[in-house]
Design a protein that fits this description.
By secondary structure, this protein is α+β, with helices and mostly antiparallel strands. Helices cover 36% and strands 30% of the residues.
């Protein structure tokens, strides 16, 4: 996938990345866990249990790439991408809190759009209804196509004349 910012790179996940991926997962659950009143040990145990369950579930998705997102040489997030017949399905895209709102997600999504468009595919993602990133997805042209309870399935379609930005 071609990215317009040379500081952003992707590489396949390896066994040594699991502590980092756990940290990324914990960062996306941080606000939620602050409301529990749990001790730090209880929070860490919960995060580990949930991360392990999520990893097992995602590992069962066929034709999925598990990628680490790096920015300026530092690991900053994860991108899990399933290659379906007619879609690039974003299983997960997450950045550490301190790297959000810097244009990294926009750059990654623009690269995915170009790749999908060149392959005649759509880009889709399940998004929690209260996820602040929904605003970015809507600004980039994702449309809700199915209500899945806590989640919306959102899709970005392309035509030859559409701009990717």
């Amino acid at each position: 996938m071609q990215l317009t910012d040379p500081q952003i790179t992707l590489r396949p996940v390896n066994e040594g990345d699991f502590p980092f991926l756990l940290t990324v997962y914990g960062s996306i659950r941080e606000d939620e866990l602050m409301q529990t009143g749990w001790s730090e040990q209880e929070k860490l145990g919960f995060i580990q249990m949930q991360f392990d369950a999520q990893h097992r579930a995602y590992s069962g998705y066929p034709d999925t790439e598990f990628l680490v997102i790096a920015y300026a040489g530092a690991d900053v997030g994860r991108l899990y991408l399933q290659h379906q017949k007619n879609a690039l399905h974003i299983v997960d895209i997450s950045l550490l809190k301190e790297y959000r709102r810097r244009g990294i997600g926009h750059t990654l999504l623009s690269g995915l759009f170009a790749k999908a468009n060149s392959q005649g595919k759509v880009v889709q993602i399940h998004v929690e209804k209260n996820n602040p990133a929904r605003k970015l997805y809507a600004e980039l042209g994702f449309q809700p196509v199915a209500d899945k309870g806590l989640y919306l399935l959102m899709r970005k379609e392309f035509d030859e004349k559409a701009s990717l930005d």
